Amino acid sequence: MEFFDALHMRQSVRMYTEEKVGKEDVAALVEAAQLAPVGMHNSKGYLLTVISSENVLGLMKEAFRKATGKENDPSYGAPLFILVSKTEDAIEEIAKYDAACIIENMHLAAAALGLGSVYIHGMIFSIRGEKEWQKAAGLPESAVPLCGLAVGHSAQPLHARPLKDNFKVNYVE
Description:
Mean pLDDT: 95
Radius of gyration: 16 Å
Distance between the termini: 33 Å
Structural class: alpha+beta
Strand content: 15-25%
Shape: globular
Low-confidence stretches: none
Number of strands: 4
Strand order of the largest sheet: 1-2-4-3
C-alpha cells in the first residue's frame, strides 16, 4: 500500500472479529514502532509490551472496571494490545510525545496491513497503578504505562477516508 493510501485508510476501529492477528502482522507492527522518531534517539526510554493473552487482556479490562465503575470494554474486544510504557531512561518532558509517535507509526502500519486499530489512552491512564495486570503482563515495576494500540480484524469493512480540511493552515512565504 502506498503511503498516502495508508493515511486515508487509517481510522479508529471500535469493533473487531475474534480472529487473532497473525505473527507476521505483529512483527510488522513492532517494526513500525521501532522506526518511530523519539527525542534524543532515546530508544532506551520505552518498552513495548505486545499482549495477546486473553487472561492479561481480561485483567486489564477488570482493572478498568474497578477503577472507573464503567462496564464497557475499553479496548473494544480487540485480540491484540500493544502497550507503550516509559522506562526510567525516558526523558520526562517528551515521553508522552514520543509515545504518540510510536502509536501513530503502528496505527499507520495497521492500516497498511488491512487491520483495524484504535489509540487507547484513557484506559491506561485509569489502570496505571494497578499492579495485578502489570505483573501478569511482565512489566518491570519501574515501567510506567503511557498508552496503547488495540489491534485486530475490523468487524466492518474499512474504507478510505476522504480528505477534509481539519486544521486551519497558515502559510508564511
